[in-house]
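name: query_chain
kind: protein
chains: 1
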Amino acid sequence: MKIIVTLLSIILLSSSSVYDISLNKISGESFKLSDFKGKKLLIVNTASKCGYTSQYRDLEKLYQSHKDKLEIIGMPCNQFMGQEPGGNSEILAFCKKNYGVTFTLLEKGYVKGDKQHPLYSWLTKKENNGIDNYTITWNFNKFLLDENGKLIEHFGSGVSPASEKITSLLK
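structure:
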């Protein structure tokens, strides 16, 4: 009986969908990623005072050129050397003023540790994403999901949103 319960738990965990996760936009409005079913998703942990912050520009360009089939979701995070110290309204103002960001930004959250947001738990744990375990070690890690919410690829901070590694998967 214990084996059956354990197997059932594993099946239920691995069958959980990223679309079941509730999220809050930086404005406080709640939504689910299922709102974007049928589009690819690029999910990125962001920060306003990071060496990679200029990637906001390439993220916005990528979004503008592919928004018919791609949604970009940014989650501001202050877990890496305090590089996102502001509150949600300050982060939103910074992103709009400096980079013209129109893609979806989430409320500031945690991408690792005890307070890890369920979205990042799904993205980083093989038992949830079905692909592999990933460790977020810095800002601007990127996760690309297909039109059905299945993880395609993880890209580290150093991979530009404009790189062929990412853009080739959007065709």
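note: Residues 2-14 form the longest helix (13 residues).
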